[in-house]
Design a protein that fits this description.
2 copies of one chain form a homodimer. By secondary structure, chain A is α/β, with parallel strands linked by helices. Chain A has helices at about 10-25, 35-40, 45-55, 70-80, 95-100, 105, 140-145, 155-170, 195-205; strands at about 30-35, 65, 85-90, 110-115, 125, 130-135, 150, 175, 190, 220-225. The longest helix of chain A has 19 residues, at about 10-25. The interface between A and B is large, with 80 and 80 residues. The structure holds a DNA duplex.
DNA sequence: CTCTGTGAAAACATTCACAGCG
DNA sequence: CGCTGTGAATGTTTTCACAGAG
């Protein structure tokens, strides 16, 4: 398997989409799929799909295509999805609460095991089947419960401070929903999702729509390896 | 101003980040900024910043940098942000409700003026200062209230159907939070945000972290022009 | 015949490095 | 000087097109 550094960045993003589409096809009972069909479902060319998958060696079968179940297993291993992950959410506002209750995370193997909030008003309340805990519990919780990922769902102005606390507590990666760039030390990964940026990209496209085009945009993400 | 088709896709995504950073600097009272400083805040090189901004002509002042307020005004015009946008949310589950209550949208000029839900149990309830309406109201509401954008926050299996209803109602663009690819006719734009994909990208990075690297991922988006 | 994996070519995006404006 | 705008050089990603496996 190639080192992560020689996986083209755009390909890494598409890997998640292949996995999502393949899972859906597996549910439908499909046993094999070819690059043409897979590409069609995702708005990609067949060549693109083959190039992406060939990065990891011989995943397909000439003349027959790819075996759906096998390809899913390979991609899950490649993506680090062949094991469970634990995460905590910081911020019990509208977004934080929605994320804690987002069932798909658990179904996909990402367990949210704690929610924290900096405001006394929120601490102690129930969110999903968790109780909101004070920020002062963060460090111990991360250590004791072995929490690996942190999800930031606090307002812009406290986001960096929360990120610092997460890193200090020993978290390895951060999913950031606050509308600002988060800076962390090397070794910590960050992926950011900004709803306003997403909506703005949509406005940009709608405002200037006129030519047929197929684009692929993403969350802003930064890895410090 | 160049046609939208000759704006590099990655540059279009960065435009939103410039705007976000510039607004923050304006709040701080900064009057000018140079490409070096702007790039530093966003993890980009100065050359990159200049190339992106130069797409639209002479936005800067040699020897002085860029005037923050002027650059914001230019970018807003370019992005279609020099006017208000109206949107509706479909799906009053956890995510839909969080989006309706997300204040930043309104502050940035995106007004959510209606929420719809297909389930009788949700219809009639209050979400933020809106009342959840039945799907049967969608077409008329879009027409009467001139709603331009639709936000999909329903489960995967009803997402395409909701998209079809939005398009039939006359919506011009869709922000999709359901975990599947949405297909629409030419002339309709789509931007998708998938929380699981974002978290998976993070797991991928963390699982294989070892080399320093700076990546930029995004929401999946598709424009049909 | 079908369909993968893959070099080679083309398209695209970023970085360099500098002329020239203020 | 300081800093933009920009060709030219470099690096990266996608597309093409085909050899070869089943």
């Amino acid at each position: 398997m190639p080192h992560r550094r020689d996986i083209p960045k755009p390909a890494a993003r598409r890997l998640s989409l292949y996995l999502r589409e393949l899972s859906s096809r597996l549910e439908q009972g499909e046993e094999t799929v070819n690059s043409k069909a897979l590409g069609l479902s995702l708005g990609l060319t067949d060549a693109q799909v083959r190039k992406d998958l060939a990065i990891f060696g011989q995943l397909g079968h000439p003349g027959r295509g790819y075996r759906v179940a096998d390809l899913i297993a390979s991609l899950r291993r490649i993506m680090g999805r062949d094991r469970a992950w634990t995460a905590c959410v910081v911020g019990a506002g509208n977004i934080g609460r929605a994320l804690v209750s987002y069932d798909r995370f658990r179904k996909e193997g990402f367990s949210i095991v704690a929610v924290f909030d900096g405001g006394a008003a929120m601490v102690g309340r129930e969110v999903g089947d968790l109780k909101v805990r004070p920020m002062s519990d963060l460090a111990k919780a991360v250590a004791v419960e072995g929490i690996e990922l942190g999800i930031i769902a606090v307002p812009r102005d406290s986001a960096q401070q929360v990120a610092d606390a997460l890193v200090a507590a020993g978290i390895k990666g951060i999913l950031n929903f606050a509308p600002r760039r988060i800076v962390v030390r090397d070794g910590i990964s960050i992926v950011s999702v900004d709803f306003t940026v997403a909506l703005e990209q949509l406005a940009f496209q709608v405002a200037g729509a006129s030519e047929p085009e197929d684009v692929d945009a993403d969350p802003e993400d930064t890895t410090h390896g």
